[in-house]
Task: structure prediction
Amino acid sequence: MSAVLTGMGAAFPADVPQDALWDGFFATHFGGSRVARRVFASAGVRQRHTVADPRVEDLSRWSTGARMERYAVEAMPLGKDAVARALDDAGLAPRDVGLFTVVSCTGYATPGVDIRLARDLGMSDSVQRLFVGHMGCYAALPALGAAADFVAARGRPAVVLCLELTSLHLQPPTDDLGQVVAHALFSDAAAAVVLEPAGTGLVVVDVAARTDVGTADHMTWDVTDLGFRMGLSPRVPDVLAVHVAPMVADLLARNGVAPGEVAGWAVHPGGPRILEVVADRLALPAGALDASRAVLAEHGNCSSATVLMVLSALPRPAPGRYVVALAFGPGLTLYAALLRSP
Result:
């Protein structure tokens, strides 16, 4: 039995132009730094989404507890909207869902938003739930793999929701370049997919992972008294350059897929340099990562939700052709999913 991706949906809070964020807040926040200004200008982001506009309210000194309370409030309408859209796209009723998986590295509560969303959406009180927390930008793909295994084993539908509110983790002023990059890229969004044992859509063929534990300090996401703080090394693209081609080659080979059979690439746009490295190491044709660049420009980096947004933006491949989804995050970890158009 297979797991077929039959529905997708996304929801976003208010749009804010990148230039307006710089002029209205971050120029002062970073003390008028020319380096910070160049980072914002070269991030590849035209606009982002935020539940907490820093021009209106500065959360940089808020406690982690206050930020989690805000997460619980803001997450509900976004998550509900994204899942409802995905279920509607699949033509599936909420009570038919057998497994509801929620992914987030930006907010926690118990009882969690998974329980509250299942209740408000009208899912069965016997629905199984899985929460995938604090894995970062690549988390959508292990969640997709776990949900696909459930669907294939149980013959029941599953929903995966990635719900990230990075704006709640605005940090105090700093000259740490990694922090500047993070504040120039990250955005808020919710994205959901529906998986069923049959239907029209992409079949989940396989999922692969590779972690370079020797570079674990290159990308971090630490819980502090003032929210969650990102550590980001400029060496991250160099590590990806070493691992991405061998990992993808192994994924394709073990499934008997030739590189020429891959018609679409849903690559997490961690930033312009990340996309350049992936395109170069995989020898991708011009335009192969246009969807990734467009999502980055229009939405920013929405952590785990982003790769699902890119996947949704890709043209439907011809029957028998494949799509590879790639995402990267703390660890330093690479994840890939192979999907087939039936």
Remarks:
- Residues 64-90 form the longest helix (27 residues).
- The chain has two domains: 4-196, 202-340.
- The two ends are 14 Å apart (CA to CA).
